[in-house]
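Backbone-to-sequence.
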């Protein structure tokens, strides 16, 4: 006769007492957000999803023609450091031109969000087809943690390279800095 053991997690309450016991199965269920989407909402979401590249292209075109209209980055202006969003516009422009490596080098968050958006859009489409217009599907919350990890690590790595080694990742803060993306983009991979 075999015995099955199930480990449980003890979560402390506000006073530090171990009162709640959560099984691993329940813990896994809490790692997902269960989305409910209807066919009419999916059509609306698809419309706005397709509108995003059009608006992004308009924003990029306008920012090149009227640079004084768009305010500069405060973190870059006052502290001479890159914020986590610096390079996002260029990354979006490279992504719209299907230059994935350049987009990744300018700001990996843009490529990560585009891939996540396409993945969950296709997942919703498949579930809508399977369930005939009324879909329930899980969204893993680890995707949000991955977003935060990429955001924070890219911010620290890029500014560490700038402050410690003088490598200006985007080539905007120092005149004599090494422009790393241009060097990497010219090499054949």
């Amino acid at each position: 006769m075999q015995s099955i053991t199930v480990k449980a997690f003890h979560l402390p309450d506000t006073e530090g007492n171990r009162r709640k016991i959560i099984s691993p199965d329940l813990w896994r269920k809490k790692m997902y957000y269960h989305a409910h989407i209807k066919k009419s909402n999916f059509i609306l979401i698809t419309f706005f999803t397709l509108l995003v590249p059009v608006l992004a292209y308009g924003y990029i075109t306008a920012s090149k023609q009227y640079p004084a209209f768009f305010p500069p980055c405060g973190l870059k202006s006052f502290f001479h450091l890159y914020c986590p969003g610096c390079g996002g516009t260029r990354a979006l422009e490279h992504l719209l031109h299907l230059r994935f490596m350049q987009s990744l080098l300018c700001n990996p968050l843009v490529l990560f969000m585009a891939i996540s958006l396409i993945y969950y859009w296709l997942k919703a489409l498949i579930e809508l087809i399977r369930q005939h217009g009324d879909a329930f599907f899980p969204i893993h919350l680890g995707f949000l943690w991955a977003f935060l990890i990429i955001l924070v690590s890219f911010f620290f790595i890029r500014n560490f390279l700038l402050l410690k080694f003088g490598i200006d990742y985007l080539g905007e803060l120092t005149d004599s800095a090494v422009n790393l993306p241009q060097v990497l983009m010219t090499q054949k991979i």
